[in-house]
Amino acid sequence: MVFANKVVLAVGAHPDDIELGSGGTIYKAVQEGALVIALYMTRGGKTADTDLRMRESTESMNILGVKDVFFENFPDTEIPESFEAINCLEQYALKHKPDIILTHSINDTHQDHRKVGWLAMSAFRNVPKVLAFESPRVRSAAFLPTYFVNITGYVDKKWEALSCHVSQNEKRYLAYESMVNLASFRGSQVGVGAAEAFEIVKYVES
Amino acid sequence: MVFANKVVLAVGAHPDDIELGSGGTIYKAVQEGALVIALYMTRGGKTADTDLRMRESTESMNILGVKDVFFENFPDTEIPESFEAINCLEQYALKHKPDIILTHSINDTHQDHRKVGWLAMSAFRNVPKVLAFESPRVRSAAFLPTYFVNITGYVDKKWEALSCHVSQNEKRYLAYESMVNLASFRGSQVGVGAAEAFEIVKYVES
Amino acid sequence: MVFANKVVLAVGAHPDDIELGSGGTIYKAVQEGALVIALYMTRGGKTADTDLRMRESTESMNILGVKDVFFENFPDTEIPESFEAINCLEQYALKHKPDIILTHSINDTHQDHRKVGWLAMSAFRNVPKVLAFESPRVRSAAFLPTYFVNITGYVDKKWEALSCHVSQNEKRYLAYESMVNLASFRGSQVGVGAAEAFEIVKYVES
Amino acid sequence: MVFANKVVLAVGAHPDDIELGSGGTIYKAVQEGALVIALYMTRGGKTADTDLRMRESTESMNILGVKDVFFENFPDTEIPESFEAINCLEQYALKHKPDIILTHSINDTHQDHRKVGWLAMSAFRNVPKVLAFESPRVRSAAFLPTYFVNITGYVDKKWEALSCHVSQNEKRYLAYESMVNLASFRGSQVGVGAAEAFEIVKYVES
Amino acid sequence: MVFANKVVLAVGAHPDDIELGSGGTIYKAVQEGALVIALYMTRGGKTADTDLRMRESTESMNILGVKDVFFENFPDTEIPESFEAINCLEQYALKHKPDIILTHSINDTHQDHRKVGWLAMSAFRNVPKVLAFESPRVRSAAFLPTYFVNITGYVDKKWEALSCHVSQNEKRYLAYESMVNLASFRGSQVGVGAAEAFEIVKYVES
Amino acid sequence: MVFANKVVLAVGAHPDDIELGSGGTIYKAVQEGALVIALYMTRGGKTADTDLRMRESTESMNILGVKDVFFENFPDTEIPESFEAINCLEQYALKHKPDIILTHSINDTHQDHRKVGWLAMSAFRNVPKVLAFESPRVRSAAFLPTYFVNITGYVDKKWEALSCHVSQNEKRYLAYESMVNLASFRGSQVGVGAAEAFEIVKYVES
Lengths: 206, 206, 206, 206, 206, 206
Hints:
homohexamer, alpha/beta, seven-stranded mixed sheet, 7 strands, globular
């Protein structure tokens, strides 16, 4: 029950990133009593209409039990590693006082993903737990997860959330089989039925 | 067609290790015209009768197209990191002149697996390509594969081989789903339908 | 309250290793309602009488709230990486069904410490959380902790436990200042007053 | 004959980078029947006239058997990590459908080199083989090659190509001895007469 | 007496960074006869008046025996990874011909710190010794020092220097206890009373 | 002049290992006024008569200016990772009080080499500087040197020492060209004519 009464802030580069990387964990956190907040740094304008993408992600997060969904407007594919962006994240931390951050890994081939990973490292220096989730674009030669959340029983709910992203349905990693394979593989690594895997940026057990 | 006309020597700690880690690759190599030789360092006496296990592995390798199957008799669960064991492997190298070694990773939680990984590193110093396959026991916090073999189309054949190991059928990682999940996950990391993943000990493109 | 209702098995090479590496964490776990079991693989005969050392460690662990203290009798300074030793640890796991293991790191300059780290990796493959603590002999060029337990408020109790080891009081790292410096430094890395640091061998949040 | 019938796209930051890092490999690939395309991201204006440098590199690549030589015009010493630059590389991938990329490593002390390494990681996510070559400026404390191409017999041709860069002939690493030393050292690491060494970004054996 | 007759150039992002990371080492170097030059890339305007911060750092460095204190004017919290910044550092190297650089690590959570680390890697490629000091913001999961300077006997002088930074006295890591804990911990790792720890970027013993 | 008035203890697995890894450094140390002691853990009986090998190494070390040459008698190719072996090394440390250890790397494919690396890590915990030299058998995928000794001007003397090993003259890495290539390559990495490269196990600048 690590998530009970905790505030979890999930930060993704684009609509669908948070769901893909940590949808099962978020749903589990909500079930355990966490307050989860979702923040997307862009509105995903490179691959579809931004209003549509925001609607899809809002619906997706609602399915996972997340009410507080925020969208910043940094440029899709060109999120800057700027003070403005760091400060933006710091304001969320100051306002919501998260106990746990779920965000991108710096070991990712997508430029926006790794930039968000670096921004989070700067911005959330006072948050006790910062975890970096696995996107379909993490570097296979560098991403080494050591923290796993058992999401057995929550995989279907994760799929329900992912399937909101109708505008992105040509992405092969947004297929049901991809999601199940990943969850099953990560589960098999640690002896459970299904898991999401995270790199630890920082983890303090208070 | 990297395997055409090559000699591949696969070295596993126990009957079933080679198939699990590289069954698809071996079948592919045979299809492409490689001569594949399988060597098991123990006879797997800890979990079943050794004769039975040898029969199962021989049958399994035959299904993959491997005729030359050898069994040494080092003690199961206590393979030594001895000169005798290194020398044993060197003799295989001198006799068969392999171009490619497929064997265990030193980043494995099973003591026999990592010992074989170290023995191979000592013994096969003159072989141009030494690749370490993924067992169900590799260390999730350390195993970082960078070499992937596309085994799309060969997964069913791998399953046919694995299913020879009737004596081991309580191992959960010897289930069809486990095999498919792993192959699909490793494939998804590199954009193909199914793959086996390897750490590179040494790789020379001649 | 990660430790509430959990079974924690702490495994050290010698009397005093567990206390040094995780005394604060153990006391905290006990306070939160965990059942903690301590196992020493040797009786520390190289530096003092074994009966004396066992008495000291038993007293030390009692102070931390640990009632179940076990001593195996592997040779001090020559703990083997044998099946017998792995099996010994597996028996403890089968009997006590631990949720969390606290043990040595493989990244340690002391041969016994790193052997116990490897033994634990083999033996506790089915335990969801395996954490490697920091001994005074970890390799400064390799030990990279990512998991920290806030032990603010428990440092004096840790000292009380450490000070039972009268027979070892010439070891400079068994001084009060050493203990406080380490706890304060590890705390400062993660923004708390005092902490113990661990490498993650495996961590599943169930 | 890994290169037979393959399309190889080599991407360097400045005229002379491709030749230095992979001149022997490129010549070998051409001999084996590959189509090799060379792309320079800048025209090298910081150290000589850009027309001169383009002529030198074109001549150099022609000697290696490369007909298709392209020059973008990103600013020398300030190649941006921008979407424009990523997109530029993606267009080459879409047009030429490379099987193999040869480019810079992210573990390089030259800012342009490592930027090209990161750009390539983003842009070539769908190319099966991405290899990072060794420049004279790679970080000795981080560059760890695991893939070696035997260039025995091709070293003189590499020198012929390098010696086209008359405008750069004060660079000590453009000396014959430097080239031979590097090739011989990398060869000695893997038991051949001469080699070029690469980090693997991604390698799929199809 | 490694510092005797050497030129040491210390480069920090903000006033107080150099003192924090290497104040003891600098004082020791001065005592041994080194010429030490301090360069701050910003004037620290984000946290106090820049004139005040420059006065504080100048006074602080004077206490350590450093007469040559320079301030560039790159924007605090937004130091760019630009050619201009690299060139700025190269000019210092050309003018002062340093034997040893002391600067930030690329493994730091503060964006300015890691940028300075990367700039230094580009700019000081011809300096034989480049060492990266430990800031209070280095990444606990990545900073691995292997070079330690014994500063036993110099800790009080370091404190004298740090205490000049009156405008920053709310930073918890600028407390006496923090400084002593860090120095004592790093000392204990290598068996001395107090030490400062560095990552090696490059180290040539001439 | 880091070596002036220092005691250097060089520990190799077999006759010729010390010379190969650090012959230039040792000669330089002697020139600067160090007392150098050489210890071979085996007598190299696997590849020639032990008396002959001891004579060759003694002569070789004498050429480098080393008078104190010791030979233990651990079994060639089977050096144990035992307390006896650790204790043996500790006795040398207690007797000779070395300031600097030069020995094998744990990242070596030869079993004896890496065992000596681990033994040294245990035994020399109180020596301030422990450096691991580069053998012809270090793991190319793991050996990452960060400490370099400029041996420009000493390469011919190193060759004079190496050429004493007449009984080993079929080893290709004992050729003049191999030695020069390695020295030149390592030199080129750090901007000097010739260098020997070392991993740092521990380095304290007192």
